[in-house]
Each structure stands twice: as C-alpha cells, then as structure tokens.
Write a structure and sequence with these properties.
The complex is a heterodimer of chains A (320) and B (285). By secondary structure, chain A is an alpha/beta fold. Helix content of chain A is 48%, strand content 16%. The chains are: A alpha/beta (320), B alpha/beta (285).
Amino acid sequence: MPDTLDFEEPLLELETRIAELQALDDPAQREEIGKLEERLQRLRQKVFSSLTAWQTTQVARHPRRPHTRDFCKLLFEDFIELHGDRLFGDDPAIVAGLARFENQSVVVIGHQKGRETREKISRNFGMPHPEGYRKALRLMQLAEKFRKPIITFIDTPGAYPGIAAEERGQAEAIARNLREMSALRVPVVAVVTGEGGSGGALAIGVGNRVLMLRYAVYSVISPEGCAAILWGDAAKASEAAEIMKITATDLQRLGVIDEVVPEPAGGAHRDWDVTALNLKAVLADHLRALRGKTEAALVNERYERFRRIGAFEEEFRPSA
Amino acid sequence: MVWFRRKDEAAEAKGKKVVIAEGLWIKCDSCKEIVYRAEVERAGRVCPKCRYAFRITAHERIAHLIDHGTFEERDTAVVPGDPLGFKDTKRYRDRVRAARDKTGTTEAVVTGVGRLAGFPVVLAAFEFAYLGGSMGSAVGEKLTRMIELAIAKHLPVIIVSASGGARMQEGILSLMQMAKTSAALQRLGEQGLPFISLLTDPTTGGVTASFAMLGDVILAEPRALIGFAGPRVIAETIRQPLPEGFQRSEFLLEHGQLDLIVERGQLRDTLRRLLAFFADQPTSG
C-alpha cells in the first residue's frame, strides 16, 4: 500500500502476517491468528493514542481520508450539487449543494481535495480561489432565504496563493464570508474534517458550533510554513506542529472548537463507515439543539462565541 | 546617481549599516532611488520620485490625521498574553518585550477616539514595527472594543492598516480574531455607521482577509503592498516571476479591489470629505 505512513508500518506488518495465515485456511492457525489480532488492536490503540501533532497532521492529510464528497454520500440523502458563484466561474475546490440530513433539508458546503493525481489537480488540491468562497456565500444566503441549516466541511491546505486569486480578490472574498457568516439567521455547524488551513478554512468556518474530527488539524499557518518562517527550514515542520497547538484536543482546550468527534483507532481512512456514524450522531445532536433557537439567538450566540475567543492580559493601571 | 548606488551596494555587501540612510540622503523603499531627506520629510515622508509613502509609526499617523490635542487613546492596558507558551529561537514573551521597548506602544495597534477636521471618529492605527503589525488576541480585542465603542457612541470608524497578518506565536487564537473583528464590523454596519479602511504599506494576510477589506470605503496610499498571500509565497507556489507592480495599490485599483488611491498629503482632506458625506454635510472645503 503506497499510502502507508511510517508510524503505521508496524501495524501493516502485523496485518500482512494475519492475512497470510488466514489465507492458509488452516484450523491449527486459528489460535495464532486470534493472538495476532489482539496484538494488532493493542498496538493500534497504543500508536494512535499518543500521536504527535505532526503525525496527526499526516493522518489529517492522508490521501485515503474521507473528503467532503465522501461525507456527502455517507451522511446525506439526495445530495444535489450546485455550481458557480454567478460572478466569474465554478471553483471545483469547493463543493456545495442541497441535501437531506435526518429528514431535514440542509445546505452543505465543503472544501474538496482530489484523491488521484488528475482529480487532485482539477480540484487544485482543495485550495479555493475567490469564486469558491463566493459560491459558498451564495449557497449560505440561499440557505438563509429558505431557512435551512448549513453544514460545512473544512479540509484545505489554505486559500490558493496565486496571481489570479489576488486579482479577483482572495482577501475580500474571505473577509466578506467572515462578516456575512456572523449574521446568518440560520443554524451553522462547521466540521473540521481534515486540514484546517488558516483563513482559507475559516472562510467557511464561522459556525454556531465548530466540531473537529479527532485526527484533524486546524492552524493559522501550515507547520511547513511556520517552520520556514521561524527557522528558515520547512523540514522542521514537526517541531512547528508541536508548538502551534493544532490538534483537536488542543483546540478544544483553547475554546476554539466545541466537540471532538471520535475516529476509529487507526484514523478515519481505515474505516469510513464508523467515522461517518460517529460524525452523524454528533452533527444530529448539535443541529437538534440549534433547531429550537430563534433567529436572534442564533446570531447573538454565534457572535458571542467568536467574541470570547482570545487570550490576552489586561495590565492593572492604578488610576491617577 | 550611479555613484550613490555603488556606494550603497558596497556598504550592504559588507553587512554594514547603510550610512546614507542616516544622513542627508535616503533610499526610497519602493523605487530604490536616492532622494533628498528634507524633501521627503517636507512631503510628509513621501518619495518625490515615485510618490511612495514611507512607513510611519502609529503615533505619527495619528498626529497627521487627528486634530491636535483631541486624541484619547483607549485600551493601552490590553497587552499580549502567551497562551501557547510559544518559543522558537526566542520566547514570545521576550519578543513582545523587545517590540514594546522598540516602539513604545503596548501592542501592534493603537486605538482611540479623537476628531478629524472636527468630526468625532474612532480610529485605529497599526504599528508595523511592533512584530510586523501582526494581529494576535490583544490586537483583535482592542479593535473589537473600539468598534463596539463606535456603536455605543454612534461614531464612524477609521482603521489604518499596516500588518503582515495574523500573529503566528498565538496560533489559532490569532486566526479567530479575523472572525471576531469582521463580526464586529457587521454590527457596526447594521447601525448605519460607516467604516473607512485605509491600507498602507504593507497590508497582507489575515488582516487583509478580514476587517481591512471590509471598508464601506477602502483607500490606499500609493504603491503600498496589499494582498492576501505574500509575494514570496506566491512566487514559490507558482514558480514564476511576478508581474511588474503586482499587489501594489495601483494593481488593486485596476482590479476593482479598492475605491481610491490617495497621496499622503491629500489624506486628511479626503477623509474629511468622506466623513462630511456620511454626516450629510457639504463635502467641499
């Protein structure tokens, strides 16, 4: 398997041994297989309960990790993808559409990375241009008009840094989304499913609730970018990942996310169905909690949620 | 001219301080021409050759724009924490202390209330020399409080940006300040209060991608670097040389990203006319 991460290798070795023994179809080996499977489970628990931030980043970026379109298939019924920003074009790095979730109409928006080389390129590795963010906003406004909740999936290395993106107002597109999302009169639940890359992630992330898969990451700059700035060496990304505090547990502690969605041991890429079931349950809970709220409460609570975030000091100044 | 440039390059090659920058002559940061310092100062720190407006401090900016003696600074006590216990080659706390000593400001933005040509305004000016004008939690908090103050006092908001973007040393919390400040501006707008955004050299990253591009009117000084991604990141990503003038104010104007480019000498008067318009008063002199 070409997609194996280095810390997954001991697990893969055991899996291969088990598969070989199973192939023998020898009843005498049954006990041995059972032992190996137990060992595999223990080892997997051990490896995945103590992943470093950098290892977590690699899991978050794993090419076989479920992407937005996979989640659309796994979580929703009757997904209808809609296209285009009505201004310039259609950005394949953002997927957006209408769907049914738990017998309720919802609007779904998410970054879309590709899986095979050709699709990766056509999706620009999940890095949107301004028209992607404008398509997202168009669908959010559609959701608001028809009083439908919004679910977003965050999975991007970041907004694309290119000439055309700058010409068409990448910064303005992101900024406008931040402002407009803050005032949406419908429930918004954002889920960081993979890589939450800076402003390009936040541009669809201003939710009443922000959830995060266990092995997703969310950061102000990529570990490689951070390392390049701090030490002039992108290879020190693992150190940068550690000091930036980018994992779901770190971000929950910092008050940036509301709930960590468990992933199967071994990561979402090892079992899409279990991942989707976990996410479905948590999403349903939050949407249910938000459904009863008034429009004013939704807007105010979302404002207050982001208003509170930050850690600064206030120096004591004795008044003169 | 050639004579000066050679001397300049030789000095740089030896890693010494460029002597001419301290003397009668100074090199323009934008067109690289050597120009007479007194002439630059007389023009309000503007290059006589290319009209580039030199970077100035937050307090110089305030002195230039706000009526003398009317500025009341707010929230000077709101200062950076160190939520991540961040340390790279230096500790974040030490960087903060050094920035404070160097600039004399307690954060990368100075906020307050004052009058501009008689019009009461809430104004923020970024201090680029303080950690690259970067936005961390305290900057986001100061801006948000000032916007909330404008809402309470029913005043227009002016923000003069000069920033490299979100502050890396506060990680995700810096990123979240983009949402916080943008949301505050949404509320300002709902009250029918104007926000005038002035972009100065340089304005990039998370500052551009939040409040800076949300002005009801967006102004820029000539030849300022303005963009989402920094030019080096873009050049590395696309592996191509960048076009001439890329991400300068004139480029943004041409692409419909801002309203007006205003020379520093005209800035105060332009702001006065805009404030008069929003106050429903005659905008001529």
